[in-house]
Amino acid sequence: MKSVIVGTAGHIDHGKTALVKALTGIDADRLEEEKRRGITIDIGFAHLDLPAPNGEKLRLGFVDVPGHERFVRNMLAGVGGIDLVLLIIAADESIKPQTREHFDICRLLNIRRGITVLTKSDTVDAETLDVVKLEVEEFLRGSFLDSARSPMVAVSSLSGAGLSTLKEELAKVAAEVPAKDSAALARLPIDRVFTMKGFGTVVTGTLISGTIRKEDEFEVFPSGKRVRVRGVQVHGESAEQAIAGQRTALNLAGITVEDLARGMTLAPPKTFSSTERIDVSLSMLPSVKPLKDRARVHLHAYASETIAEISLGGQKAIKPGDNTYAQLRLADPLLLLPGDRFIIRQFSPVVTIGGGIVVDASPTARTLRIDPAFEALASGDPKAILQTRVWRAYHDAIGLEGLVAETGWTKSRIESLLTEPIKAGEIVRVGDILLVKAAWQVLYEQVLSFVFEFHKENPLAGGIGKEELQVQTDASVDKVFEAILQKLLAEGKIELAGDLVRLPGRGVVLKDEEAESKKIIEQAFSSAGLQVPALYNVLAGLKLDKTRAQKIVTLLLRDRVLIKISDELVFHHSALNQLRAQLAAYKAKSPRIDVGKFKELTGVSRKYAIPLLEYLDRERVTKRTGDERLIL
């Protein structure tokens, strides 16, 4: 069954709620105050099943919104996820202020389908109804509700006149609505939070993408709290799953109503990040005043609302009716993704002044920069967008998970879109890490250049350590750095000797007596365990002069065969590795150890124990807390 969300729009007391009730049999006014005052204050919901002209079953979910100017912010919380709108105009009053504002909001949200409904047609004569039709046709001319492309139906919710015609037109328009992507990553903007006896915490919203099933885990944005879906309802009925485009209620475990609020969003855990800055394409209504740079506005996106500051990137103001790019700096973090639409309202007095579409929810610059990269992101071309995001990361590279977070697209879709650029060599893929060929080439040349320079400055050295080499370059991503080393190795441009990187044939060649002395030094420390001899005593027993002996020690230290932990103490790496294993085994019994217990565990005196513990602290194997060490 295809699900379509239908929103109402129109001035107060033009019969929106009465029409929904006449169509569905459900009173969308659920609050006691709404019934007492006879007006809609908050969004309400109803549903109706209809057959499409092709025989397909349609389930229409109605979002009924308030028409009073004081409750436009509530109207905006409900209208964000709708597929088509019923613009409701009372025949006895025609076009009123909130008719105009609601219609502007629908256009700014890029709602493409709808029906104009003239309610209370039984309260006017035929001549008056014809005049109202002409006024409304003129008002809507050129818009998505132009009578040339969109139906206009006169009805009476009281007598039932015109309702069957309206249902027929609803079925036709709803059948044209493209299905939302249920295979995409799920996002549910929350528009209601309440407790239900016997169930606990319940949230509702219009599922704008993806699928939600029982037992799924989600993250609440922006709080970061984790929840589990205990139960699912779709249009008031229990279901195994909810799919994109459906009005959805979720019974959540692991959270209380106090931790939730309208405007929060449920999405897969560890996938997205909330944002406080968005680059946008912004459109201003023709009837408003110019909007100055740095002006504050009310921003509405789906069910969320916050204050935003407008940054125009050098422009002093946006003129009425203009379209431009801007950066919005949000007072509260929100989960927004490229392609999401929003409305802005004047800070005071609060009236709708414009809206637009999110271009980038993770901008790298703190001020708006209109350049080819930005224009590519705004182009709507999926391949260009992905390639631009990879290019933007440059030598820092970006993972597939990062692209998922920035775009909201699934990993499989991203991989499919990047197949050709990777095959053509425009993008280099290392596991799940991506970078443009130009960035790869820069890093490749940097690594080779730094190895060459190291040998030039250290002719006696056996090579440069991997860690030191990576720090010298811009290769901040370990996987990329290792891939470059492997490519250089395969091409015969470098050699690897343990942790050392060197040019081919540049390893240190020792004479016979030097090689023998190297073995003696290494054996002296490897056989000593943790109770090592003094270095000067070992060197004194060699047949080499002091300079050549020190050269050998330098090589052993550089190769990390020997490790110096203090001015006086040098240990063989195997002894220190064994010590780490001893501490890991000890941690299973107790996470803490003092000097006395350390001496007992290792069999060393205080002369060795204190420097060893300080070394372990530096290596983050232990952490000193008072007189004890916490084994990490």
What brief labels describe this structure?
632 residues; Elongation Factor Tu (Ef-tu), domain 3; 5 domains; alpha+beta; 6-stranded mixed beta sheet; elongated
Give the strand content. 25-35%
Class from secondary-structure proportions: alpha+beta
Total beta strands:
35
| Silhouette | elongated
Q: So how many helices?
A: 19
Mean pLDDT: 89
Point out poorly predicted stretches: 33-37
The CATH topology name of the largest domain reads: Rossmann fold
How many distinct domains? Answer: 5
Radius of gyration: 34 Å
Give the fraction of residues assigned to helices: 25-40%
Largest sheet: 8 strands, antiparallel
Distance between the termini: 55 Å
CATH superfamily of the largest domain: P-loop containing nucleotide triphosphate hydrolases
CATH architecture of the largest domain: 3-Layer(aba) Sandwich
Query: Regarding CATH, which class of the largest domain?
Result: Alpha Beta
